[in-house]
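Title: Comparing notes on inverse folding

I've been comparing how different people in this forum approach sequence design from structure. To keep things fair, I'm posting one structure and asking everyone to reply with a full sequence. Here's the target:
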């Protein structure tokens, strides 16, 4: 019986060599199909809570590092706040302005969509005559 040819150097062997009695080991079993990772509401909530805690930690560090008092004057009101509180209030005011603009735009788009639906479907393409 002739000897099987050895693979070229650097080539990977996928099966072990045949045994002395000429029988070869059975081929490896097919890999089991992996089940897809299921995402649930609870896992999403857990992820959101972890992200929220991380944001709160960053906010606490921000407040502790910016504890200096600043004087603010706005529309006749004179306030003395910590720098961190003043910056957070400014960020919240900016977020509220952004939310108001976004809400106005969404309302505008919904009204336009409602008007379009009331008119009925648009006319179909004109077919050429003979």
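Reply #1:
Here's my take.
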């Amino acid at each position: 019986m002739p000897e099987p040819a050895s693979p070229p150097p650097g080539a990977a062997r996928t099966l072990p060599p045949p045994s002395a009695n000429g029988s070869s080991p059975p081929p490896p079993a097919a890999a089991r199909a992996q089940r897809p990772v299921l995402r649930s509401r609870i896992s999403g909530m857990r992820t959101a809570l972890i992200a929220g805690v991380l944001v709160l930690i960053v906010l606490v560090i921000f407040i502790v590092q910016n504890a200096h008092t600043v004087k603010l004057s706005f529309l006749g009101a004179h306030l003395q706040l910590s720098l961190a509180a003043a910056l957070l209030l400014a960020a919240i005011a900016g977020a509220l302005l952004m939310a108001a603009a976004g809400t106005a735009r969404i309302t505008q788009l919904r009204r336009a969509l409602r008007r379009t639906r009331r008119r009925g479907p648009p006319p179909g393409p004109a077919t050429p005559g003979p």
